[in-house]
Amino acid sequence: MKQLIVRPYTYEDAEVKLQLHQENRGHFQKWSPVRSNEDFFTLQGQIDSIKKFMENSAEDSRYDFAIFLQEDSLLTLIGEVQFTFVARGPKQSCMVGYQIGEKFNGKGYMTRALEIALKIAFQELKFHRVTSQVNPENIASLRVLEKVGFVKEGYARKNLKVGDKWCDHVCVALLEEEFLAKV
Fold first, then answer.
1. % the chain with pLDDT above 90
2. Domain ranges in the chain?
3. For residues 139 and 35, what is the distance between their CA atoms, to the nearest angstrom?
4. Which CATH architecture is the domain 2-182 placed in?
5. What is the pLDDT of residues 27-58, one digit of tens each?
6. What is the pLDDT, as a whole number, of residue 30?
């Protein structure tokens, strides 16, 4: 039986994290403005990134989670989800981003993983509002957000430079009470 596990990274995940990023380098960079340097694609680079994830979580500035597919006793890292731009005080908000390995696309894993991650965001991390911004050409990602309850709030023109091109983004958000009413 297949089960999804969403949890913070540990140092023991460095090798499988490296493999995920090496196998999906072009796939992940298609939608992301982040262009990792070559050091990122080494085992030490992954250990360093996991260390930074842990520091960010301890500082309450960003939260990064691994998405594992468990089948019997076999765990396979299939993607990641992160909560960034954390704002506390009267806002209690963040932005969610995610990526899944290309060979795991279209199987419903990202929708389920995002539901699990949002439960953590709202119930454990105590966010009130989670936003996301998605390239309108990324129809699969927009569909994932729609399935878990995100509502379109706007459209940001030439919002983010991905590669050499300025891209528009659809702006969506999900409120704690909307998510909890759905769960």
1. 83
2. 2-182
3. 22
4. 3-Layer(aba) Sandwich (3.40)
5. 887 767 665 678 888 999 999 999 999 999 99
6. 72
- Distance, in Å, from the CA atom of 88 to the CA atom of 159, rounded to the nearest integer, reads 24
Closest CA to 152 of 168, 140, 165, 169: 169
Among candidates 108, 112, 130, 110, which has minimal Cα distance to 178? 130
Give the separation between CA 74 and CA 64, rounded to whole angstroms. Answer: 22
Q: Which amino acid is at 139?
A: I
| CB atoms closer than 10 angstroms to residue 7 | 13
- pLDDT at 153 > cutoff 90: yes
**Pair of tokens at residue 117:** 């991650």
CB 17 within 8 A of CB 66: yes
CA angle 153, 112, 118 (to 5 degrees): 55
